[in-house]
User: Fold this.
Amino acid sequence: MLHNKVVFHTMKALNGFGFPVLRFNFRGTGLSEGEHDHGIGEVEDVRTALGWLDHAFHLPLIFGGFSFGAAVGLRASCSDSRVEALIGVGVPVAPVAADTEEPRTYTFDFLRECAKPKLFVSGARDQFGPRPKLEALVASVPEPKKLVIIEGADHFFEGRLRELREAVENWVKDVVIPR
Assistant:
């Protein structure tokens, strides 16, 4: 969601380097129009947002997404030539939909062809991103890539938002800015 603390701290990290940031709610979330489309239409939401950012700023883009936003945004951004680097925070490699009858599943096979710089940040206690599954995903994708596990953090980085922000800032400073 647009006002989520994880999204806010990721945005602040990127904005601190002067990158324009667009935070938005996916269709059917908050006060947005439309209806949730189980990750299909939401990929188009990301593509539309990337198009708006490109048109408004004419700058290289960095995609950053959290949880569901990471799952659909990474899919949209890997093949988009305007996007130079990717950040997936709380990537849901083992999601569970507690309030629905059908479990959510996301595939990340598309990342195997993504040669862009990639940062994955997860809490060591992330209930939707068990460390072994996340490590296996990251091992399967090409370089450049980095995985940062924040000890003591859950999916929402409760009490560890500073460490999340620092992980993003350090990666941007070390990997994105030198490009």
The first strand starts at residue 61 and ends at 66.
